[in-house]
UniProtKB/TrEMBL annotation:
Matches recorded under Gene3D superfamilies: Glycogen Phosphorylase B
Name of the protein described by the UniProt record: Trehalose-6-phosphate synthase
PANTHER family named in the record: BCDNA.GH08860 (PTHR10788:SF106), TREHALOSE-6-PHOSPHATE SYNTHASE (PTHR10788)
Family (UniProt): Belongs to the glycosyltransferase 20 family.
Pfam families referenced in this protein's UniProt entry, alphabetically: Glyco_transf_20
Domain Channel forming colicins: 337-348
Domain of life per record: Bacteria
Length: 462
């Protein structure tokens, strides 16, 4: 680890690039973290004088901190487990994520009660712990890039501790329009915006989210002050993906998947965290609708759906996970035959198998109700072997860049999505190939390393 006040470039995020599992016999094993943010930032590598500050997330991570086990260039903060749970599950994932993805069922939610206020206190404590650690580690005039809604208060807090630093903040989520954002209690809304405006520069994935943020600032605070706002559309890492997708473990899974799908059948692929905003249930319903409306596809197509567990501490995520399985089983029992299983649902996280599915996909279904970017939409065209039609929600950030060559859908419209799936399955191989080439070019326009460096350079010029 770099010594105190020596880091020139610092990244701060809740989930870090690495996590530890504690085995029954007391050994610690490390693995790479997942999610859009970590995939984006991991290409940065461990350059000299760069420090990544993140949370210790489970028993394994906490034990690693206690034993002083770690990776060069990464500092894990062992924040009190209760405080972290209130900040992460309570505020970040149950409030801020819900606001920005507009997930509340508003007749009954949200209710900002005393329990919310208690959790908000934990969120402040957790943000302060990050600000303090960054203040300790940063060299004079260093650049600090804070990531995401978990750490919205950090820029303002850090600015007070270390006015010499150049501070940036990047949002990997959508940003809610003011009329939705203002459901938050006024003082909380103000604190969040002021916290972020403590940065010299703010980054968003698309113009749409950046504009929504600016409108919230105008409505709540009267303006954005001197903070500059930029748009950086994180792209796929083509070099990494193409290499990784042809390693032996991926080849092996490709063979298994081909066997499970069966010869001559088309594959509609989806790969997601089992996340409320990903709209997996409506995706399955749309596939069921396709089999109803277009019986000619029965027996000739398989929906390969990978839905990896996420945020299982939250009851609504557990319920959603169960609903995904229930709907998939219902389709299989309605339409399945002795030699055809219409939906192949896999829930155990396996990156190599995801890549294998990208390689063979005829159609990729990416239909979130709202998504900051959605990297799956950008990864599939890069890895696809025979060309793949992208059925893409117009509410995904990626739609701004990929709309020309994707088949766009309204994610709430199940009948419309079924029609889009039919259109995608029926597209000629020639057109599919041409579109995939153009999609891959657009998807890789700003690869992760460049995405990060552009922000860093902008910050240094600030
Ligand atoms: C989104 C967020 C990331 C987060 C990821 C996984 O992509 O923007 O910050 O890392 O989801 O979520 P998790 O709660 O598992 O860290």
């Amino acid at each position: 680890m770099v010594s105190a006040r020596a880091a020139q470039v610092l990244v701060a995020s809740n989930r870090g690039p690495i996590s530890y599992a504690l085995d029954a016999d007391g050994t610690l094993t490390s693995r790479r973290g997942g999610g859009g943010l970590v995939s984006g930032l991991s290409a940065i590598g461990s350059e000299a004088n760069t420090l990544w500050v993140c949370s210790a997330l489970g028993d394994g991570d906490r034990e690693a901190v206690r034993r002083g086990v770690g990776e060069e260039g990464v500092r894990m903060l062992d924040i009190d487990a209760g405080t972290h749970a209130d900040a992460y599950n309570g505020i970040a994932n149950s409030v801020l994520w819900f606001v920005h993805h507009m997930l509340y069922q508003t007749p009954l939610e949200p209710v900002f009660d005393a329990e919310f206020r208690r959790q908000w206190g934990a969120y402040e404590t957790y943000n302060r712990a990050f600000a303090q650690a960054l203040a300790e580690e940063a060299a004079d005039g260093a650049s600090v890039v804070v990531q995401d809604y978990h750490l919205a208060l950090v820029p303002g807090m850090l600015r007070e501790l270390r006015p010499d630093l150049r501070i940036g903040h990047f949002s990997h989520t959508p940003w809610a329009p003011p009329e939705y954002f203002r459901m938050l209690p006024d003082d909380v809304a103000e604190q969040l915006l002021r916290g972020m405006l403590g940065a010299d520069r703010l980054g968003f994935l698309t113009r749409r989210w950046a504009d929504a943020f600016a409108r919230c600032c105008v409505d709540v605070l009267g303006g954005t002050g001197s903070t500059r706002i930029g748009v950086y559309g994180l792209g796929a890492d083509a070099e990494f993906l193409r290499r990784r997708a042809h390693e032996p473990d991926v080849d092996e899974r490709l063979a298994t998947l081909r066997e499970q799908i069966g010869p001559g059948r088309k594959a509609i692929v989806r790969v997601d965290r089992t996340e409320l905003s990903k709209n997996i249930v409506r995706g399955l319903l749309a596939y069921g609708q396709l089999l109803t409306d277009r019986p000619e596809w029965r027996g000739r197509v398989v929906h390969v759906a990978f839905a990896y567990p996420s945020r299982q501490d939250l009851a609504v995520y557990r319920e959603y996970t169960a609903e995904v399985s229930r709907v998939a089983s219902a389709i299989n029992s309605t339409y399945g035959t002795g030699d055809w299983t219409p939906v192949l649902l896999h829930v155990e996280d396996d990156f190599a198998r995801s890549l294998a599915a990208y390689r063979l996909a005829d159609v990729a279904l990416v239909n979130p109700i709202r998504d900051g970017m959605n990297l799956v939409a950008k990864e599939v065209p890069v890895v696809s072997e025979e060309g793949c039609v992208l059925v893409l929600s117009r509410e995904a950030g990626a739609y701004e860049e990929l709309r020309e060559d994707a088949v766009g859908v309204n994610p709430y419209d199940v009948v419309g999505t079924a029609a889009a799936l039919h259109e995608a399955l029926s597209m000629s191989a020639g057109e599919r190939g041409e579109r995939t080439k153009r999609l891959a070019a657009a998807a890789t326009a700003l690869p992760p390393r460049q995405w990060f460096l552009e922000q860093l350079n902008a910050l240094r010029e600030a």
